[in-house]
Amino acid sequence: MNVGATQTRAAVLRSRAGEFDVEAVTIQAPAPDQVLVRIVAAGMCHTDSVARAMGSFPIILGHEGAGVVEAVGAAVTSLRPGDHVVLTFDSCGVCTACRDGRPYHCAAFELLNFGGHGPDTEPSARLSDGEGVANRWFGQSSFAGYALANERNAVKIPDDVDLELVGPLGCGVMTGAGCVLNVMQLRPGDSVAVFGAGAVGLSAVMAAKASGAGEIVAVDIHESRRALALELGADRVVDPGADGDLATQVVGGGAAFDFSLDTTARGEVMAAAVAVVGRPGLAVLVGAGFEPLTLAPASLAGKSITYAYMGNSNPQVFIPRLISFWQRGQLPFDRLITLFPFMDVNQAEAASAAGTAIKPVLVMNGEN
Ligand SMILES: [Zn+2]
Ligand SMILES: [Zn+2]
């Protein structure tokens, strides 16, 4: 199917400290391995704000898009116009890890997801004055009415699933649930401490609960998030602002944990996440940030530590599984979502930073 260029609008970020401007953009027709997706909604993730420190400008962010396939490139075989899709991280498809079904270990992960341009030498989107705009953020740049994705990072989902809700399955929810189900492979009775009760941390709490975990402890500075963590399956919550050493508070009077998850990327919190696991124990780090983690080598005796992109998830398999989990009431991630009109993208980012919205989702309302 051939289509020409698509006129739409997008939330464009022009500088590190600037606000998003919603403005007109023109997107090229999909390349042979790409699909053009009409975005219905797109979740906002902390990594979108981290892009301020690492993206190239101008850039269109957004990496939790959900929508409907509008057109497909000539080489696309698994998707067709009209298919409902969740967009997720991109991967090359040809490196050893990709061929082995582990796209989260893709050798080109950083280039394809964080650079903003992917492998392209010329941008495939332009502003109204003709300037190119980076539109390959996580292979999608879905803070826009339409987005180009690759066949590999567009996951077909059933038509009867609410597209306004499922975008966060492409990153935040998948990361949290994947850390528990794929990285930890948590067994019934295993204990876990979760540092940071945002969308990733709370998704981990839900997945741990659904897996029959033993004690689940959640740590967050926001009282409202601690309360929600208790509702979603945490047995105990800790306010890191309270007096005393964080690791000591998390362990309480009990035993060390089998697993911990850090979503904060803060140095001292990551160190606490390592300190609270026993021997053997595994600390999983997923936060997006740049603070170093400093540890005395012997503090790792008997312990493992890993940094996991996307919860080590193979999205073409894992996202449909998460949807079925959700439909059976075991992963109520919709409770994390606050919907914002697309035009309110700056308010959504502010609400996320302030902790008042756990998972903002920008809704196009048909105004693509
Ligand atoms: Zn993300
Ligand atoms: Zn690869």
What does this structure look like?
- The chain has 10 helices and 17 strands.
- With 368 residues, the chain is α/β, with parallel strands linked by helices.
- The protein folds into 2 domains: 6-170 and 332-363, Quinone Oxidoreductase, Chain A, domain 1; 176-310, NAD(P)-binding Rossmann-like Domain (Rossmann fold, 3-Layer(aba) Sandwich).
- The protein is globular and about 65 Å long.
- The model has no long low-confidence stretch (mean pLDDT 96).
- The structure holds zinc ion (ZN) (2 copies).
How do the helices and strands line up, and which of them pair or pack?
Blueprint: E1 6-13, E2 20-27, E3 34-43, H1 46-54, E4 59-60, E5 64-72, E6 84-87, H2 96-99, H3 109-114, E7 125-127, E8 146-150, E9 154-157, H4 172-184, E10 192-195, H5 199-210, E11 216-219, H6 223-232, E12 236-238, H7 246-251, E13 257-262, H8 267-275, E14 277-285, E15 303-307, H9 315-327, E16 337-341, H10 345-354, E17 359-363
Parallel strand pairs: 10-11, 10-13, 11-12, 13-14, 14-15, 16-17
Antiparallel strand pairs: 1-2, 1-4, 2-7, 3-5, 3-8, 3-17, 5-6, 6-9
This protein binds zinc ion (ZN) (2 copies).
